[in-house]
Amino acid sequence: MSTLPSCPKCTSAYTYEDGNHLVCPECAHEWVPGSESDSQEDQKVVKDANGNVLNDGDTVTIIKDLKVKGSSSVLKIGTRVKNIRLVEGDHDIDCKIDGFGAMKLKSEFVKKV
């Protein structure tokens, strides 16, 4: 009896072979045995304007005055944003700014504190 490796995404032991791929029935992740780059491909690296890697929960500062769409107000340079959350898409930072509420920002307009 051959033992198959655990799923690299959810570490489930119930993997099975499907042709030359391995499949996890719990999270539906498919991979080719021997490819170690699977976990790195799934995670997108988000960097600020200076090239620093951003993580969930970081505090950032806005580096440029940003017009708020649909409003006459402006987010001023130097505004500090706490506890950011990284999301998929063009605007890859989801946050809550005091005085403005929930916002989505582009990582190119912030720097890590």
Could you say which overall geometry the principal axes of the C-alpha atoms support? elongated
| CATH class descriptor name of the largest domain | Mainly Beta
- Strand order in the sheet with the most strands: 1-2-3
The secondary-structure element order is EEEHEEEEEEEE
Q: What summary fits the major beta sheet?
A: 3 strands, antiparallel
Q: Which stretches are low in confidence, meaning pLDDT under 50 for 5 or more residues running?
A: none
Strand tally, please? Answer: 11
Give the count of helical stretches.
1
Task: Give the assembly state of these chains.
Answer: single chain
CATH homologous superfamily assignment of the largest domain: SH3 Domains
Spatial separation of the terminal alpha carbons: 54 Å
Number of domains: 2
Secondary structure class reads mainly beta
Average pLDDT, all residues: 88
> So, CATH architecture of the largest domain?
Roll
Helix content: under 10%
**Rg to the nearest angstrom?**
20 Å
Predict the CATH topology of the largest domain.
SH3 type barrels
Which percent range describes the beta-strand content? 25-35%
Domain Protein YjdM N-terminal: 3-31
Domain Protein YjdM C-terminal: 46-113
Family: Belongs to the YjdM family.
Protein name: Alkylphosphonate utilization protein
